[in-house]
Amino acid sequence: MRKILRIFFLLIVVALVAAQFFQPEKNTSEASENHILTLHSVPENVAGILKNSCFDCHSNNTNYHWYHSVSPVSWMVANHIREGKKELNFSEWGNMDVFSQITKLEEMCQESEHRKMPLKSYLLMHPKAKLSDEQIVALCDWTTRLSEELLVKAVEE
To answer: Which of 103, 101, 135 is nearest to 118 (CA)?
Structure first.
């Protein structure tokens, strides 16, 4: 029985070491002309909130920490980013139609207010990304203003 456990443990160690050689592609790119910060006037405090709490999973540039390079964490992070970008990618903001942008802005506010975003799993490793009540109010005020501006612009066109 002990021999089987040793072999099993050795196989797990070998698998973990081998997994280090197969890393997912990093989520990094050059600045985009379609990025929300390029297309809209975003107040500094709101830009800080977006950078600190949203962009790692919802843009084409993730701020990686050392532990993001260790498998299997690297694969979980890559999947998390892929799912986040599928839902909303601030780097591709300009590629969405105005009504989709308005919908995403409303969802940003609602998900923040209901404390669904940032995800709890993200906050475990990034506690500074947790939004305070004041930050949520600032974010929602901005999303409401921008939604109204976009709607007025869409009606005028």
So the answer is: 135
C-alpha distances (whole Å) from 49 to each of 35, 45, 96 are 15, 6, 22
CB 64 within 8 A of CB 80: no
Phi, psi of 82 (to 5 degrees): -60, -45
Q: What is the pTM of this model?
A: 0.81
DSSP 119-130: -HHHHHH-GGGP
**Smallest Cα–Cα separation from 52: which of 149, 142, 117?**
117
pLDDT at 76: 79
What are the tokens at 64? Answer: 């990686």
The secondary structure of 88-135 as a DSSP string is: --GGGGGGS-HHHHHHHHHHHHHHHHTT-SS-HHHHHH-GGGPPPHHH
Using a 10 angstrom Cβ sphere, with 0-12 exposed, 13-18 middle and 19 or more buried, the burial of residue 21 is exposed
The string of pLDDT tens digits covering residues 19-61 is 566 676 776 777 788 999 999 999 999 999 999 999 999 999 8
